[in-house]
């Protein structure tokens, strides 16, 4: 666990210098080396950290090499993006969107890895496989499984392209919503935080001795990748009425998956029979997700890359945060959420 005196320092914003890069509108701040080192010791697999733009999005320094290419990424009206803050129901939404966009081709969906069917736009800007504590064989297998296509390779793929991103809208192409469709999914940040914490451990990006309370403090102080959470979600909420934006809550999807399938189908102007809807809902159920080799990343566990403790597809429910927050953390979360929603009309569905 990070020592309390170091954690207090860690939660502050330290700025060493400011950077501007060509064809990218935002100023970048670098994080103080000492604090940066402490974060790197806590969260593995990343080099230096930076903060971008007025909302100070927290990203690895290696992102700078791809920032302009991502911001100016050429899109087609035939493309579609699923955008989420991490651990907000991304995989469920990707699978639903991909199947609707590919004539419910279950055979291909089950035989082709989701990362190949739905590439991750900024993956090579976020992680360096070479820096991970893995054998050369494991690194090679990870590259193949995750298919870390570069931004340039993704740019050269023919449309229609199905693209995943965890970046906020402000760091994506400014013409995004005027060009193509976007499905954005939001989830209760308390569930997001715990799921993110278990994901870090499952992927060995954080050692097992790290406690959730420390992770939660890093999460709400915007020291976790792709944060700040509320900056990310509220940017999308402001665009929820754009005709090319479908804004969903994970809680609603879990509670009424049939309704979610209908909403997404209507968004893409797809007409489904009751039989098609029922089969799609069954395919998307958490139990079937856990058995689906194109989604569950079990091959990475077998290779020793991911931990045997836990799973990529977990419980698929909402409200589970209550099992992991003590009274102090719950009160802190209530205050933090209220503070960020005070002057907005954004509210989370009841779990």
Summarize the structure in short.
This protein has 351 residues and is of the alpha/beta class. 45% of the residues lie in helices and 11% in strands. It has helices at residues 4-10, 33-42, 64-71, 90-101, 106-111, 114-117, 123-126, 136-146, 151-156, 176-179, 189-202, 212-220, 229-237, 250-255, 257-267, 274-284, 286-291, 298-302, 327-341; strands at 15-19, 28-31, 49-52, 57-60, 80-84, 162-165, 181-186, 245-249.
Characterization of the model:
The protein is built from 19 helices and eight strands. It is of the alpha/beta class and 351 residues long. It has a four-stranded antiparallel beta sheet. The chain has a four-stranded parallel beta sheet with strand order 6-5-7-8, sandwiched between helices. Helix 15 (257-267) crosses helix 16 (274-284). The relative contact order is 0.14. Residues 1-16 have low confidence and may be disordered.
Protein topology:
Layout (H helix, E strand, L loop, with lengths): L3 H7 L4 E5 L8 E4 L1 H10 L6 E4 L4 E4 L3 H8 L8 E5 L5 H12 L4 H6 L2 H4 L5 H4 L9 H11 L4 H6 L5 E4 L10 H4 L1 E6 L2 H14 L9 H9 L8 H9 L7 E5 H6 L1 H11 L6 H11 L1 H6 L6 H5 L24 H15 L10
Parallel strand pairs: 5-6, 5-7, 7-8
Antiparallel strand pairs: 1-2, 2-3, 3-4
Number of strands: 8
**Order of strands in the sheet with most strands:** 1-2-3-4
Largest sheet: 4 strands, antiparallel
- Fraction in beta strands: 5-15%
Distance between the termini: 31 Å
Low-confidence stretches: 1-16
What is the string of helix and strand elements? HEEHEEHEHHHHHHEHEHHHEHHHHHH
What is the tally of helical segments?
19
Residue-averaged pLDDT: 85
Q: Structural class of the secondary elements?
A: alpha/beta
Query: What is the overall silhouette?
Result: globular
User: Helicity range of the residues?
Assistant: 40-55%
Radius of gyration over all CA atoms, rounded: 20 Å
């Amino acid at each position: 666990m990070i020592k309390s005196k170091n954690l207090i320092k860690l939660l502050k914003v330290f700025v060493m210098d400011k950077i501007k890069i060509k064809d990218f509108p935002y100023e970048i701040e670098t994080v103080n080396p000492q604090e940066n080192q402490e974060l790197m010791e806590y969260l593995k697999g990343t080099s230096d950290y930076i903060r971008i733009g007025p909302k100070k999005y927290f990203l690895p320094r290696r992102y700078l090499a791809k920032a302009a290419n991502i911001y100016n990424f050429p899109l087609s009206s035939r493309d579609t993006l699923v955008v989420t803050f991490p651990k907000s129901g991304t995989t469920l939404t990707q699978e639903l969107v991909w199947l609707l966009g590919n004539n419910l081709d279950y055979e291909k969906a089950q035989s082709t890895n989701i990362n190949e069917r739905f590439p991750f736009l900024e993956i090579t800007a976020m992680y360096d496989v070479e820096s991970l504590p893995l054998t050369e064989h494991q690194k090679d297998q990870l590259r193949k499984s995750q298919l870390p296509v570069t931004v340039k390779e993704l740019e050269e793929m023919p449309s229609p392209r199905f693209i995943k991103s965890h970046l906020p809208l402000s760091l994506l192409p400014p013409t995004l919503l005027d060009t193509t469709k976007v499905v954005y999914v939001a989830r209760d940040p308390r569930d997001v935080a715990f799921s993110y914490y278990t994901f870090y451990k499952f992927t060995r990006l954080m050692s097992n001795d790290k406690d959730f309370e420390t992770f939660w403090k890093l999460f709400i102080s915007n020291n976790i990748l792709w944060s700040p959470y509320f900056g990310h979600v509220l940017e999308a909420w402001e665009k929820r009425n754009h005709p090319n934006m479908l804004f969903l809550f994970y809680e609603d999807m879990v509670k009424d998956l049939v309704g979610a399938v209908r909403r997404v189908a209507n968004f893409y102007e797809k007409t489904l029979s009751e039989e098609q809807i029922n089969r799609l809902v069954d395919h998307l159920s958490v139990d079937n997700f856990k058995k689906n080799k194109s989604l569950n990343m079990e091959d990475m566990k077998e290779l020793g890359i991911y931990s045997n403790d836990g799973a990529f597809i977990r419980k698929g429910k909402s409200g589970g945060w209550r099992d992991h927050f003590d009274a102090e953390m719950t009160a802190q979360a209530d205050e933090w959420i209220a503070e960020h929603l005070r002057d907005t009309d954004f509210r989370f569905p009841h779990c």
